[in-house]
Amino acid sequence: MNLTLKIWRQKSPKDKGRLVTYMAKGISPDMSFLEMLDTINRDLILKGDDPVAFEHDCREGICGSCGFMVSGQAHGPLKGTTVCQLHMRHFTDGDTLVLEPWRAKAFPIIKDLVVDRSALDRIIIAGGFVSVDTGSAPEANALLTPKDNAEIAMDAAACIGCGACVASCKNASAMLFVGAKVSQLALLPQGQPERERRALSLVTSMDDAGFGNCTNESECEAACPKEISVRNIARLNREFLRASFSHPAK
Ligand code: FES
Questions:
Q1: What are the tens digits of pLDDT across the range 55-82?
Q2: Which residue minimizes the CA distance to atom 3 of ligand 1?
Q3: Which residue of 33, 57, 102, 120 sits with most ligand 1 atoms within 8 Å of its CB, as the best mutation to test the pocket?
Q4: How far is the CA of 81 from the centre of ligand 1 (A)?
Q5: Does ligand 1 come within 6 angstroms of the Cβ of 67?
Q6: N or C of the chain: less Cβ packing under 10 Å?
Q7: What residue ranges define each of the domains in the chain, with the CATH number in brackets?
């Protein structure tokens, strides 16, 4: 396959950035999208040019490191897939693809396709965990959890924090991410002692980071490579209201 790639090149956060055209020639349909970019980078390095910066780690759709816009779609056109798991056979010989970084105020561009997603880490640090002693495996097995709750919590826990939800939302809202993180613990017995504090802290941290508000567009659900449901946003709103009544602002 031969493709034309228009890739966002930006040397540093202060650089203005621009789209640069590259030709990807002799690409195997069995290559992943990142392997295709590796061939572009190999050629750039051989010519003594700066390779295209993009994030990746597991390349198995697990870690959430990778992610950029492919012709306006977060992680590309295939539903429920990270860009590292997207294969070139889903494109057509001769296609022109535009690769751009996530665009959001809370995700400043570091270089080329790499953005600073530490705002998501700060949200988790604000309370997206269980710090009380929940015992070991035998105690966990002895705590009965309704099957539906366990299933929904597991689905929410599939969020890999890639930021596609933010990048695809016209408001750059992180509500799907925060909804998933709040839901996965609010539905389990181990998450109950810190349930209200967690909902309040995560929402406060999300607002402080400069993410926008949710206006129920559902683009986040459509773009999510783990197909996290927007029902988690509704649950987050309920959790936040519940916590606000129990802990009114002073
Ligand atoms: S590199 Fe880990 S999810 Fe894509």
A1: 999 999 999 999 999 999 999 999 999 9
A2: 61
A3: 57
A4: 10
A5: no
A6: C
A7: 3-111 (3.10.20.30), 118-246 (1.10.1060.10)
| Among the listed residues 206, 148, 212, 216, the one whose alpha carbon sits nearest the alpha carbon of residue 181 | 206
- For residues 171 and 217, give the distance between their C-alpha atoms in angstroms, rounded to a whole number: 9
Task: In the chain, count H helices and then E strands.
Answer: 9, 7
How far apart are alpha carbons 188 and 27 in whole angstroms? 47
Nearest-atom number in ligand 1 for the CA of 59 is 1
Place of tokens 């306006």: 72
Ligand 1 center to residue 117 CA distance, Å?
14
CB atoms within 10 A of CB 6: 16
Residue-level pLDDT at 250: 56
Q: Is the pTM of this model over 0.90?
A: yes
Q: In sequence order, what are the residues at sequence separation of 6 or more whose Cβ sits closer than 8 angstroms to the Cβ of residue 110?
A: 12, 13, 53, 116
Taking the centre of ligand 1 as the mean of its atom positions, its distance from the CA of residue 37, in whole angstroms, is 14
Report pLDDT for 247. Answer: 77
For ligand 1, say whether the CB of 173 is within 6 Å of any of its atoms. Answer: no
Q: Mean pLDDT, to the nearest integer, of 146-155?
A: 96
Judge whether residue 148 has pLDDT over 80.
Answer: yes
* φ/ψ (deg, to 5) at 231: -60, -25
Give the Å distance between the CA of 208 and the centre of ligand 1: 27
